Amino acid sequence: MVAGAIVLPVVSGFVIFRYFRRPKTTPRWKFLMTPQAETLGDLCMFLNVICFQLLFGVSVSSPHFWNALHKLTRLDSNSLFGRLYVACIAALLVYFPPRIFYLVIDQHRKITWLMMLLANLPLIFAIVFYAPSPHLSRSLKSLREPEFTLTAAGLHDEYEANYQAGMRKYMRKYVNVTGSVQTRFFPRSLELEDEIGLDGKEGFPWVYCSFDEDQVETAEALEMGQVVTFQCVGSDNWSRGPALKHCVLVTSREKSAGTVNSRNR
């Protein structure tokens, strides 16, 4: 993706700048020499910019984009460069390519660059001064009435009996699952999910529970062997085993004291 974000705008810019050079031969289609063709071209360029702007707006407002910023901030306190890097990749992919048409003519006008800066100033400020919201408040609000309540061992038994039937049964349903922490996986990569495995043996968990970025700090505080209850949503991919996503910690029992810490709604 990074290589594509760098190479594609360069290739696109080269093609577009060649497009604005005076042709050495007569166009094959006579229509291209008419005023109607010029109007049609202007309309297509305008619609191109509008569509790309919508795509850019959807990209930078998506949970995936802000989850990436949240993870960069959580892993590195000096993460301004990383956040700007992610934003620049998004801009190179969907913001600058359609505007090259206009920059061919207006690239020397300071007002053009100033207007582009002003249009994106809110996003720039949001990225530079980004501060994650407290994850606890969102967790409390996100708890729902579960449609299923069971143990990790029970969910694993259903997987062993018929994993496709089990996946269809729990897919997109709210599930409260209880088990002990068997594995903990919190990668630095932005592409990999943060995950805790429940129960199981020899390092192979019976249930895989993945977390959204705003829940990771809570999940990271859990210890191996600690008995927990998560509220999750059933995943549509059980290729490794029962998989649940968007998990939120409901209760946790300390290994030593045997007391239960609950997060009440």
Name a few traits of the molecule.
alpha+beta, 265 residues, 5-stranded mixed beta barrel
- Can you tell me the residue ranges where pLDDT is under 50 for at least 5 consecutive residues? 134-141, 256-265
Q: Please write the string of helix (H) and strand (E) elements.
A: HHHHHHHEHHEEEHEEE
Please bin the fraction of helical residues: 40-55%
Please give the count of helices.
10
Model description:
The structure is a single chain. The protein is 50% helix and 18% strand. With 265 residues, it is α+β, with helices and mostly antiparallel strands. It has a 5-stranded mixed beta barrel with strand order 2-3-4-6-5. The protein is elongated, with a radius of gyration of 26 Å.
